[in-house]
């Protein structure tokens, strides 16, 4: 498992596992790997993805199988809600909601709203 930058450049692997299984004829075998936020967080940036590469070898035939999966890490959405009627020339209140999906507090964030009729938008520190 490694991170992949938005440019496509892969970082060094930060997790490796090796499993040996005997699979009976007509059967399938499942291997599960859980990766916590604390484990991948030091390796990813704002627009990165995770790349899982799996390779297997069939001992009896020497056949090699490989598969790659890229998992794009999505950023949470901002929800905007008008709290009253929007009338030309009048102020309107807007509610902005952001839910932190991480298991740790976020700090140093700011919110900046821009749009028609908004003169000199000022960031709000959060």
UniProtKB/TrEMBL annotation:
Gene3D superfamilies: Immunoglobulins. It comes from Edolisoma coerulescens. Transmembrane segments: none annotated. The gene is Tgm1_1. Residues 3-67 form the Transglutaminase C-terminal domain. Its EC number is 2.3.2.13. GO terms for molecular function: protein-glutamine gamma-glutamyltransferase activity. SUPFAM superfamilies: Transglutaminase, two C-terminal domains (SSF49309). Pfam families: Transglut_C. Keywords: Acyltransferase, Transferase. This is protein-glutamine gamma-glutamyltransferase.
């Amino acid at each position: 498992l490694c991170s992949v930058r938005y440019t496509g450049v892969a970082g060094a692997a930060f997790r490796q596992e090796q499993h040996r299984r005997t699979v009976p004829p007509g059967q399938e075998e499942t291997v599960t790997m859980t990766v916590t936020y604390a484990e991948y967080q030091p390796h990813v940036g704002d627009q990165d993805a995770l790349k899982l590469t799996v390779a297997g070898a069939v001992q009896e035939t020497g056949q090699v199988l490989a598969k790659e999966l890229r998992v794009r890490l999505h950023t949470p959405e901002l929800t905007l809600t008008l709290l009253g009627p929007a009338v030309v020339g009048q102020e309107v209140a807007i509610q902005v909601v952001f839910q932190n999906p991480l298991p740790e507090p976020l700090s140093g964030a700011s919110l900046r709203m821009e749009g028609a009729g908004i003169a000199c938008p000022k960031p709000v520190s959060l």
